[in-house]
Automatic annotation (TrEMBL):
Organism name: Marinimicrococcus flavescens
Keywords attached to this entry: Transferase
Domain Gamma-glutamylcyclotransferase AIG2-like: 4-120
Protein name: Putative gamma-glutamylcyclotransferase
Protein's UniProt keywords contain Transport: no
Length: 141
């Protein structure tokens, strides 16, 4: 199974642990996706990827995920994103194919504003952590 590349709220270890319902080990590493920029979705506090020549997005590569982890993440991303397999570059310069979640065009539009993890952690993380348990309670494997 190819790893998953996170570029938004799932880069936050508290959020990812809550979604997975387990603590994280050393399963995340820094990776970069070329050809895109990260923007805030219109009328939302989370990001989407926008094609952009010469740009790249830093994110987290989640390795060692099992089928149960993937099912939980698919539930978390349900409806607004679809999984795509893309090449990402690791910190050592090597390339690897990874699954990432691209916004469904009929659901999310770009706002034109950049999305930054640190800013979201300061302004939107608490609300997501409060809402996430209810959302994930609806998960059925």
């Amino acid at each position: 199974m190819a790893p998953l590349f996170f570029f938004g709220t799932l880069m936050d270890k508290d959020v990812l642990s809550l979604v997975l319902q387990r603590p994280l080990e050393e399963e995340l590493q820094t990776a970069r996706l070329a050809g895109f920029r990260r923007e805030t979705a219109r009328d939302a506090c989370y990001p989407l990827l926008v094609p952009a020549c010469g740009a790249s997005v830093e994110g987290s590569l989640f390795c060692g995920c099992g089928p149960g982890d993937i099912a939980r993440i698919n539930h978390y991303e349900a409806g607004e994103y679809r999984a795509e397999l893309r090449a990402v570059q690791l910190g050592d310069g090597s390339r690897r194919r990874a699954w990432l979640y691209m916004a469904r065009e009929n659901c999310l539009k770009a706002s034109g504003q950049p999305w930054e993890l640190e800013r979201w952690q300061a302004t939107g993380k608490a609300d997501l952590l409060a809402a996430c348990p209810d959302w994930m309670r609806a998960f059925r494997p």
